[in-house]
Amino acid sequence: MSQVLLSLNGLTKAYPGVVANDDISFKIGVGEVHALLGENGAGKSTLVKMIYGLVKPDSGTMELRGQSYAPGEPRAARADGIAMVFQHFSLFDALNVAENIALGMENPPPMRDLAARIREVSETYGLPLDPFRTVGDLSAGERQRVEIIRCLLQDPKLLIMDEPTSVLTPQEVQILFKTLEKLRGEGTSILYISHKLEEIRTLCDTATILRLGKVVGTCTPRETTARDMAELMVGSALKTPERAGRALGEVALDISGLSAPSPSAFGTALKNVHLTVQQGEIVGIGGVAGNGQEELLGVLSGEILTEAGAVKLLGEPIGRMGPAARRALGLLTAPEERLGHAAAPDMSLTENALLTGAVRENLVSNGFLKWGAAREFAERIIEAFDVRTPGPENAARSLSGGNLQKFVIGREVLQGPKVLVVNQPTWGVDAAAAAAIRQALLDLAAEGTAVVCISQDLDELMEIADRFAALNEGRLSTPRSTTGLTVEEIGLMMGGAHGMEVAHV
Ligand SMILES: Nc1ncnc2c1ncn2[C@@H]1O[C@H](COP(=O)(O)OP(=O)(O)OP(=O)(O)O)[C@@H](O)[C@H]1O
């Protein structure tokens, strides 16, 4: 390593029942892109929160450029040149880009000067962004640019990025990587958390691997295979999902001529969507985020009502039924946003198990909640899906992102759905857990469930789906068999070339 920017010496942080970081030591060099790898709950977020001043270590020290460094709050970290782009953006939809950036500054300059600075940084780093656009109109990739530019305006020495590419299209990933290369060339160090191992192999100079809160290895990603890195993370050999031949049954889900406005002012209306899914079939829905994915989940879950006949479950019109009635009939859904939508953050896992499992798991009797049965259901989910938590009485909020995702998906899978609709089932989930979730969806289909998997991970869809369709501005392309489908064809479908007749990508 050239010069050391930041050294971590024996950092330790414990939460009740778990040592999230156990005696962690490593160094980050000046101008180094350093990957932080580890399965869900390994302690990556806890570690970067200590570096960014959000969490105080129980013991251990840090040195920044040879000086003792112990930020009491993020403001102190920023003053020392540490910036962080979070997985979840904290932007106000109704304000424009410059106003959002000004809100995060201690002494914002006049708006006109700030807009000029934003333009300058955006051009220098190849991140196209208009300072006067309303944030609500921006794609996920553009919102991330707002966060990155906000960081770059502080001229950081270390930029921490938590899963930056999970919301990006392949093209946007290329743009981001060019920006990061440029920053590295200028001597900025980058600490990069991601579960996407091929990206880490392309981008990162070195990687530190955490398991159960401890450093278990270091490697040079360019010289290590993705499989070897994944196995280092989990400490055992990885299983590839098995796709057994499946017999398809009758049409379980039938969407025809479905149009629906979005409940959100910045959402996307669905336009004349047609789709049938047979029993035992997995249909993958791809597309760039914000093209109607959430709305599609909403019309299937019953949160958005439509004409009765626009959605049919095993022949029965259900478009006007609410979520509870649909659940009772066997149509289950797992939305994308884990905290808040799929799970209530402050409730225990037992309470969260009750939330969607009450009807099908028979957890209510004569108006009374059956707490013992609910707890037993939560324990079954934890066991079957290897959810890392001290127990079902813990709040959903205390789980790491990936572990909560396993819980949310497991809760629906174990209820034996007739039709299961999932949105981004493996978002933020490590390689081993993602493989387990995909295998669970394949097993479910093998038992005759019709599965709709909405995902931005095209590799995932190609791995598990029988047919593929893409959402573009609320329209769904004609589904095609995934066998023999090329990347170019997928790109055209995602870009809105419906039926392949026009290629206005
Ligand atoms: N505020 C908290 N209270 C209690 N436990 C916590 C808290 N924050 C984290 N933990 C626990 O600490 C451990 C490490 O969690 P952390 O979020 O750092 O993992 P991670 O590697 O970032 O996981 P992921 O990839 O799933 O985001 C987990 O077991 C988690 O449940």
* Secondary structure category: alpha/beta
Oligomer: single chain
CATH class descriptor of the largest domain: Alpha Beta
Mean pLDDT: 89
- CATH homologous superfamily (4th level) name of the largest domain: P-loop containing nucleotide triphosphate hydrolases
Overall, the morphology is globular
Q: Over all CA atoms, what is the radius of gyration?
A: 23 Å
Helical stretch tally: 16
User: Helical residue percent?
Assistant: 25-40%
Give the low-confidence spans. 498-505
The profile of the biggest β sheet is: 7 strands, mixed
Please count the beta strands (DSSP E, at least 2 residues each): 23
Please give the alpha-carbon distance between the first and last residues: 43 Å
Hetero groups bound?
Answer: adenosine-5'-triphosphate
The proportion of strand residues reads: 15-25%
**Do you know the CATH topology of the largest domain?**
Rossmann fold
In the CATH hierarchy, the architecture of the largest domain is 3-Layer(aba) Sandwich
Count of separate structural domains = 2
Subcellular location: Cell membrane
Organism: Antarcticimicrobium sediminis
GO molecular function: ATP binding; ATP hydrolysis activity
Protein name: ABC transporter ATP-binding protein
Strand and helix map with partners:
Blueprint: E1 4-15, E2 18-29, E3 33-38, H1 44-51, E4 59-64, E5 67-68, H2 74-79, E6 82-85, H3 97-103, H4 111-124, H5 140-152, E7 158-162, H6 170-185, E8 189-193, H7 197-203, E9 206-211, E10 214-219, H8 226-234, E11 251-260, E12 270-278, E13 282-286, H9 293-301, E14 311-313, E15 316-317, H10 323-329, E16 331-334, H11 349-357, E17 364-365, E18 368-369, H12 371-384, H13 401-413, E19 419-423, H14 431-446, E20 450-454, H15 458-464, E21 467-472, E22 475-476, E23 480-481, H16 487-495
Parallel strand pairs: 3-8, 3-9, 6-7, 7-8, 13-20, 13-21, 16-19, 19-20
Antiparallel strand pairs: 1-2, 1-4, 4-5, 9-10, 11-12, 11-14, 14-15, 17-18, 21-22, 21-23
Helix pairs in contact: 11-12, 12-13, 13-14
Bound molecules: adenosine-5'-triphosphate.
